[in-house]
Specification:
182 residues; alpha+beta; Cyclic Phosphodiesterase, Chain: A; 34% strand; globular
Length: 182
């Protein structure tokens, strides 16, 4: 199954970002807008993971979560990865979030899963494009937005089922979660 590890913003944060992106959705209907009920901050993408690894991975992620305290975070502003991904940034305890992401990557590696080696850039994806859209005006419109602060209290292992969500999007289903205890 296709998996990733993430933290999930609470309802009031999602509601604020939904309002902030409503005008953008109307301005750029050609983009593939992510569904607010599936918004998350990915810590590590695992790709296809065999059933034989799940037990070990969940044990290791449970231990990782227990070593990290809850994280004071906020979403805000806008950015892009080229002309393909529009996102809002994660603010607050970014160092703590990076340490949690590093622990989640280590849990995956120790479970014999390949993990990408690239710098961690905390963000929440709000839309994807085919590479032809100019995302810069949307980034400028999203730049002044600041969401309400929130505290991430749980680490989640999430299954992503491509094409199973609304309109043929991916469906994200949490399959396990652990409290951040620190």
């Amino acid at each position: 199954m296709r998996l990733f590890v993430a933290v999930t913003p609470p309802g009031e944060v999602v509601a604020g970002l939904r309002i902030a992106t409503a005008e953008l959705r109307a301005l750029a209907p050609e983009l593939r807008w992510t569904h607010p009920e599936q918004w998350h901050v990915t810590l590590v993408f695992l790709g296809e993971v065999g059933d034989d690894v799940i037990d070990e991975l969940t044990r290791r992620l449970n231990r990782a979560a227990a070593r990290h305290p809850p994280l004071a975070l906020a979403l805000g502003g806008g950015g892009r990865f080229g002309q393909r991904v529009l996102w809002t940034a994660v603010h607050g305890d970014r160092d703590g979030l990076r340490r949690l992401a590093d622990s989640a990557r280590a849990a995956a590696r120790r479970s014999r899963l390949p993990v990408e080696h690239r710098p961690y850039h905390p963000h929440l994806t709000v839309a994807r494009a085919d590479g032809r859209a100019d995302l810069r005006p949307l980034v400028e419109r999203l730049a002044p937005w600041q969401g309400v602060p929130w505290v991430a209290t749980r680490l989640h292992l999430v299954r992503s089922r491509l094409g199973a969500g609304p309109g043929g999007s991916a469906l994200h289903e949490p399959i396990a979660g652990w409290p951040l205890k620190g």
